[in-house]
Specification:
This protein is an alpha/beta fold. It has helices spanning 33-46, 54-62, 67-72, 114-120, 126-136, 150-158, 160-177, 192-195, 209-225, 265-282, 299-305, 313-322, 341-344, 352-366, 386-399, 429-448; strands spanning 90-93, 96-99, 102-103, 106-110, 141-145, 180-186, 234-237, 288-289, 331-336, 370-376, 404-407. The protein has one domain (15-64, 93-448): TIM Barrel, CATH 3.20.20. Helix 4 (114-120) crosses helix 7 and helix 15 packs parallel to helix 16.
């Protein structure tokens, strides 16, 4: 999720060793991408819709109406039951994604608070309108947060019927709008262990209450929606790898926490494997995603030496392999173009394209598709060059034959400082370029995998 850098390194660390920020965040099927966009912009003109940083995202995500106010809010009618198909959503075989039995590659968007708005304020349907506009614009899917923090998970455990009534609204709208969904279950996952009154190292214990509650949460959601064609894949959470083995982890512990509340990579690997096992208990075919950023430039040395020494190409590959354990069946990274590759990605890659080709080669070796869950860059009003960098990153991903990618971010008011893209602001070009790229990627997947 795009934001100011959160996991800071000591002043003496080099720029190359700086950890990446925790990045914030059909019926029209036969129309061209340009036709989609014309309809979307017209719809937006006719009906105007009502990271700055982690703290602002958190404040927005945690905002809820008082219980009495929630009880008095008129509730939208529950849509019809989901459509069912033979094998809904995406699947993958030997590293190739399939949709409706045909090879598939695509580009979509992050819609961070798509569900959180409805969860927190059930009368607020602006995100559902946004989903419809994305469908009209030819954006094929969105990645979104199922829960941001402790209050959202409590909404589930304390009242599943109401939680699902509100999530149903999102899924049914997605089905009608022809926009598919990649839900990210544990956006700020470290707090989840607190619900079980356990220390956070219990993510690494398959017998813990933390893992038991994870299974309950994940299993219930997948069982409810696994027959819907709108659900494309299942993601654990947002950038868990950026928290692992930090030499300065003490600076980020919760109040009263100990070393057992620091995330170790060995516990993270168990956590992700247990998540994937639970997904497979309920869904036999959809891709399973970790949700990682690209590794920190010093991730290997963070683990081996508790140092900020820059990793080599081979060490970065070793970390990507480690952080995506089976039965996960994708390779996941986030990548941003605001900085040159040595500052954003590490000391060894010459540019973003170089890095992407290395990831693609590893994915082919492991027979997994690549999911870039976030990409993009911030831009200030009137700033030149942002569009060119965005187009270059899209081109780099296309040339590397990335399978699935989602730009950061659509319709997130708290990131109006340069990240938010809407149909009526100066970043609207991202929506047009994404729809056009999606059309090209779709065709390339069919041509390259007859």
């Amino acid at each position: 999720m795009a934001q100011a850098r959160r996991w800071d390194v000591p002043e003496e660390a080099t720029e190359q060793a700086t950890p990446p920020r925790q990045h914030a965040p059909s019926l029209m099927k036969n129309l061209t991408a340009i036709s989609f966009l014309a309809l979307a912009f017209a719809a937006h003109d006719a009906q105007a819709r009502s990271g700055v940083g982690h703290q602002i995202i958190a404040a927005e995500a945690d905002r809820q109406l008082p219980p009495t106010a929630q009880e008095n809010v008129p509730r939208p009618a529950l849509p019809a039951k989901p459509v069912t198909t033979g094998q809904p959503g995406l699947s993958q075989k030997d590293g190739v994604l399939f949709k409706d039995g045909k090879p598939y590659r695509g580009v979509g968007a992050n819609y961070f608070d798509l569900f959180l708005r409805v969860l927190h304020e059930p009368a607020n349907t602006t995100s559902l309108t946004g989903l419809q506009q994305l469908g009209a614009a030819g954006i094929p899917f969105v990645r979104f947060a199922v829960a941001f923090g402790e209050g959202d998970w409590k909404s589930f455990f304390n009242g599943q019927d109401e939680f699902f009534r509100r999530l149903d609204l999102v899924v049914r709208t997605a089905e009608r709008a022809n926009v598919s969904l990649v839900p990210s279950f544990f956006w700020d996952f470290m707090n989840f262990a607190d619900l079980a009154n356990e220390q956070r190292d219990q993510w690494g214990n398959p017998e813990s209450q933390t893992v038991a509650r994870m299974r309950q949460f994940v299993g219930a959601i997948i069982e409810r929606y696994k027959e819907s064609p709108a659900l494309w894949a299942w993601e654990f959470g947002n950038e868990p790898n950026l928290l692992a083995d930090l030499p300065n982890a003490v600076e980020f512990r919760k109040s009263g926490g100990t070393e057992r509340d620091d995330l170790r990579s060995k516990d993270m690997v168990v956590m992700l494997a247990e998540f994937a096992k639970e997904v497979r208990r309920h869904d036999s075919h959809r891709p399973i995603i970790a949700g990682h950023s690209h590794p920190r430039a010093s991730a290997w040395h963070n683990t081996a030496e508790k140092s900020w020494k820059a990793d080599s190409r081979e060490q970065t590959i070793e970390i990507i392999r480690r952080d995506n354990p089976a039965p996960l069946d994708t390779l996941a990274i986030h990548i941003y173009a605001g900085d040159a590759a040595p500052k954003e990605l590490g000391a060894w890659p010459g540019d973003h394209a170089d890095y992407l080709h290395v990831v693609r080669a590893l994915a082919r070796e492991m027979k997994r598709p690549v999911f870039i869950g976030e990409f993009g860059l911030a831009s200030k009003d009137g700033e030149s060059g942002a569009r060119a960098k965005f187009e270059k990153l899209l081109s780099d991903m296309e040339q590397a034959e990335v399978d699935l990618a989602a730009f950061w971010v659509f319709d997130l008011k708290s990131q109006n400082n340069g990240w938010n893209a809407t149909f009526d602001n100066d970043r609207a070009y991202m929506l047009k370029l994404t729809a056009e790229a999606n059309h090209r990627w779709n065709k390339a997947a069919l041509l390259n995998n007859p």
